[in-house]
């Protein structure tokens, strides 16, 4: 990448992040690299997004439903990677999203006989309920539905249903306890 291209990329990233701040005045956004469509990103009042964190909200790979919604008083920590990739991501109220988390709304197709990069994406997004704690290093994959009050242990890989009030951990994540 030429120096001029890098300068344009940095400028565009700074401008996009400023548009994100203006569109979500009740949220605290620091050191976030934002890309995509600001109008599809709703951060409720008292949301904190601490960087360096990457948020990309938009469409891709044949999917057109990319949007990000984050509920009141949710904290999103450092070094996170949140990408809608054409599918919705919803994070509830009063959540703690630790550091080094990846949340993706869709994935590349993997059918044989075609290169992966040429295939349409698939995935129906991610839903994280209210009062959820996602531990450091976790990966939340397309199709994850995490119930209210659940805890995801550090370094877990989650896809599918996590019932409310349960504690899930591992790769793939499975129930290891319940909140008491």
Walk me through this protein's architecture:
Helices cover 12% and strands 39% of the residues. With 180 residues, the protein is mostly beta strands. The protein has one domain (3-178): 3 Solenoid (UDP N-Acetylglucosamine Acyltransferase, domain 1). Strands 1, 3, 5, 6, 8, 9, 13, 14, 16, 17, 19 and 20 form a twelve-stranded mixed sheet that branches. It has a six-stranded parallel sheet with strand order 2-4-7-12-15-18, with no helix packed on it. The radius of gyration is 16 Å and the shape is globular. This is Acyltransferase. Keywords: Repeat, Transferase.
Question: What separation lies between the terminal Cα atoms?
Answer: 53 Å
CATH architecture: 3 Solenoid
Uncertain segments are none
The major sheet is characterized as: 12 strands, mixed
How many domains in all? Answer: 1
Strand content: 35-45%
CATH superfamily: Hexapeptide repeat proteins
CATH topology: UDP N-Acetylglucosamine Acyltransferase, domain 1
Global shape = globular
Query: Helicity, in percent?
Result: 10-25%
Q: What's the average pLDDT?
A: 93
Please identify the top-level CATH class.
Mainly Beta
Give the structural class.
Answer: mainly beta
Q: How many strand segments?
A: 20
Give the helix tally: 1
Question: What is the radius of gyration?
Answer: 16 Å
Helix-strand string: HEEEEEEEEEEEEEEEEEEEE
InterPro entries: Hexapep, Hexapep_transf_CS, Hexapeptide_acetyltransf, Trimer_LpxA-like_sf
Protein name: Acyltransferase
Organism: Arsenicicoccus piscis
Keywords: Repeat, Transferase
């Amino acid at each position: 990448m030429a120096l001029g291209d890098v300068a344009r990329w940095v400028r565009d990233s700074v401008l996009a992040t400023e548009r994100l701040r203006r569109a979500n005045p009740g949220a605290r956004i620091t050191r976030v690299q934002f890309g995509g469509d600001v109008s599809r990103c709703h951060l409720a009042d008292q949301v904190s997004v601490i960087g360096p964190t990457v948020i990309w909200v938009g469409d891709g790979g044949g999917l057109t439903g990319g949007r990000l919604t984050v509920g009141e008083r949710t904290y999103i920590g450092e070094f996170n990677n949140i990408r809608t990739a054409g599918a919705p991501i919803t994070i509830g109220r009063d959540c703690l999203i630790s550091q080094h988390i990846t949340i993706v709304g869709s994935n590349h197709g993997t059918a044989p006989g075609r290169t992966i990069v040429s295939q349409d994406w698939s995935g129906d997004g991610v839903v994280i309920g209210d009062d959820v704690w996602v531990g450091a290093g976790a990966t939340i994959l397309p199709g994850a539905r995490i119930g209210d009050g659940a805890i995801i242990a550090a370094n877990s890989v989650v896809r599918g249903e996590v019932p409310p009030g349960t504690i899930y951990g591992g790769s793939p994540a499975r129930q290891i306890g319940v909140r008491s």
